[in-house]
Structures are given as structure tokens and as C-alpha cells.
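Justification of computing resources. Each target in the renewal requires a structure prediction run like the one illustrated here; the chain below, 334 residues long, is used simply to show the kind of job we budget for.
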Amino acid sequence: MTQRSRLRIAYFPFTNDGNRYTDNFKKILAQFGDIAEAPPLKKLFGKAAFTRFDVLILNWSDNSFINRRTGGISPLGVVKEFVRIGIYKLLARKTVFVRHNMYPHDATGPHRATASRIIARYERCFDLCWVHSGHLAEDWRQYVPHPLYEVENGDSGIDRLALPSHYFVVFGRLLSYKKIERLLEILPPDLHVVVCGSCPDPAYRDLLKQHACSNVTLLAEFIPDALARDLIMRSDGMLICHAEDDMIVSGSIVYAISLGIPVFAMETAFVHWFRENVNDRMVLATRDFHDMIAQMRQHRFELDDADVKTAQAHFSDSAVTKSVARTFNRLGLL
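Resulting C-alpha cells:
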């Protein structure tokens, strides 16, 4: 790509502590142009109002539709985001919304359906919507694979944990909607599970501690990259305990695939689509927690290199780059 053809790309959020997705995706977008932070709403009435972009990409902006304290719709948040995209459309030739969830995780009860309807209207304000599962692809909603996570080298200190030779791992932010405690409630003594990740809710951390028996290693804290890598790579598999209808794809599934480790996941539309269209050995679908435990105990998951390579190729930088290029071509940017 010549210097003249490089795009001016605005991206939000420009940084995202604790989630490597943002950095990974910006690295891919850097092949197409120069990336800057999408100006926040409070700056859009100053100098930022004179900045112009070829394409502006938003992630997770729909979270503002929900009041985190009550779980209900935030009228101010809804108005703010619709005003913001209206201004962004004046600043950018094209706009793209990346829909990560059907509704924000914090939404509760009937507010979930309301949030879904609002987001459906919101995404049509953009020139295009990206989704990370093929089952949601529509004419205005294009499938772009979730990028793999980069795995860094380095000493992890995992041996100090004195883990058993066989264990399974739950990895990611430890949040109540993931229902990890329901697995621990019925976990038999012959299976060991490592539950690891930051836990911002002290009440949920206390609940997990209550269920952490001798066959549970609970690390409710920030997990350095090297330790996360070794915890997962030495495990017998990654466990995904939640199958809420808000979730499109779990980043933990993609992280496990990045490391070549099998996943035991509650069946979701994405899991079904992945098994049908990509590989049915890398991700094992389970009906409920009892089924998950039965498969953990009985299953001897021996992946061959072809399974791992097929799954990793689907989420590779090359595959994501090609998908992004197709959408940019469709938008007339390339």
C-alpha cells in the first residue's frame, strides 16, 4: 500500500487495559493507514471538530445505553451515543460499529430486550457493522474474525503453584454473569479446576472463595501474560461456563485457540457455528454443567496439528486482514 493511499483511521477505545483485543486489532488496521483516537464527545466541540478521517471504528460504545448501578436503560447514555455517532458521521467518510454483544452485560431483566432493540437501531446509523460470529452476518452486518492473541515468552513462575498434573482452567475477568460458581458447586473431587483472572466485584470474589475447595485453585487477581500462557498451555482444556444470550463470542475461546488448547464451552450460537463451519474438535459443546463435568472426566482430547492449524488459520492476522480489506473495499475506501 503506497503512502498516498494510506487511510486516516479513528478508533475507539484507543486503549483498553486488561484486554489485548484493542492492541491486536490496531496492529491489523495499521496495515491500512494511520490510527488515531476517536475524539471523545466532550472534545467534539473544540479543535477535534476540524479533524477528518477516512473511517471511524467504534467498539463497546453501546455499553453507555445501560446504567451500571441499576441494570436499566440510561436515557442520557442513549442520547449521548446517538449524538456522538451523528457528529462522527460529519467527521469521517465512513463509520463502522463493532458489535461485541447482543446487549451490554450489565443489562438486567426486560431491559435486555429493550437494549437489543436500541442497539439494532444504533448499528444502522453506521455505514457498516462488524460482528465476530458468522451466524450474525447480514447485508449491513459483515463477519470479521476475532484476531488471535499474541503469546509472549518469559518466565511465569507457574511451578510455585504446585498444581496437579491434570487440571482444567477458567480464565478471564471473573464476573458474576459467567456463573463460575455453578460449576464449582457440583465439581467432583477427582477433577481439579484453576479459576484465574481479575475480579473487580468483592462480593463475587467472596462467593468464589466459598466454593473453592481443595480441588479448586482460585487466583482472583491480575494474571501476567506469561503465567496465563503457562496455566492454559499445561491444562487439559479451557472451560467456558456461561452461555448468556448477550454473548456473541468469548475472547477466552479465541485465546485458548491461540495457544492450541481445546475448549469445553456451553453451547451458544457461535459455538454451534464454529463447529459447523471451522472445526468441530477444537471446541467441544456442552449442554449444561453436569454435561460439562461428564465430558471433562471422560474425554481424552487429543488434537492433531491439523485441527489446531485449521482453527488458528481462521483467526490469524492474515484472515482478519483479508476480511477487513473486503469491508473497506465495499465501503469504497480502497
